[in-house]
Automatic annotation (TrEMBL):
NCBIfam families the UniProt entry points to: transcriptional regulator NrdR
Source species taxonomy: Bacteria, Bacillati, Actinomycetota, Actinomycetes, Pseudonocardiales
ATP-cone domain location: 46-136
Family: Belongs to the NrdR family.
Protein name as annotated: Transcriptional repressor NrdR
Obligatory cofactor(s): Zn(2+)
ZnF unnamed span: 3-34
Function description: Negatively regulates transcription of bacterial ribonucleotide reductase nrd genes and operons by binding to NrdR-boxes.
Region spans: Disordered: 148-168
Gene behind this protein: nrdR
Keywords, in A-Z order: ATP-binding, DNA-binding, Metal-binding, Nucleotide-binding, Repressor, Transcription, Transcription regulation, Zinc, Zinc-finger
Domain of life: Bacteria
Cofactor note: Binds 1 zinc ion.
Biased composition (Basic and acidic residues): 153-168
Length: 168
């Protein structure tokens, strides 16, 4: 780290502490040449690589605002949004790479969002997967139906009830 005053490259660390809940380290340094002191902050950054090639730090707030847009008019509260963003961040961090393509962040959002609100999920997926036709929606909705049927405790039970009611 070069001294900001004289550009000398030999600076010694005189104090070091964790800030921002341990995600960053602040170091107090003294220049060996001019003796002046300055502070550096080192932050471990998860970078998101956009399709254009531009990178930016991963931001939980950005996840929240993107999902909030998809949740407009739905009964999804702020708490749920924050929880979802937290899950997305965990998933992204667990990926083990420091540079994540933005579409992988999108992928990490889709799973938890599907559980949270199916309409918001469809909206988000339509943008993220660039749906171009009604068929795209139909396919996605069909998948949602299949998933919902799979989750029901006993789907056959429901079918039986529907069939037996007229005769009974
Ligand atoms: Zn200096």
């Amino acid at each position: 780290m070069r001294c900001p005053f004289c550009r000398h490259s030999d600076c010694k660390v005189i104090d070091s502490r964790e800030v921002e809940e341990g995600t960053a380290t602040r170091r107090r340094r003294a220049c060996a040449a001019c003796g002046k002191r300055f502070t550096t902050v080192e932050e471990a950054v998860l970078a998101v690589v956009k399709r254009s090639g531009v990178t930016e730090p991963f931001s939980r707030d950005k996840v929240v605002s993107g999902v909030r847009r998809a949740c407009q008019g739905r009964s999804v509260d702020e708490d749920a949004l924050q929880q979802l963003a937290h899950r997305v961040e965990e998933a992204v961090r667990a990926g083990g790479t420091a540079e994540i393509p933005s579409n992988e962040v999108g992928l990490a959002i889709l799973g938890p969002l599907k559980e949270l609100d199916e309409v918001a999920y469809l909206r988000f997926a339509s943008v993220y997967r660039s749906f171009t036709s009604i068929e795209d929606f139909e396919r996605e909705i069909a998948d949602l139906r299949v998933a919902a049927a799979g989750e029901a405790a006993d789907p056959r039970d429901r079918a039986d009830r529907r069939e037996t009611s007229p005769s009974g």
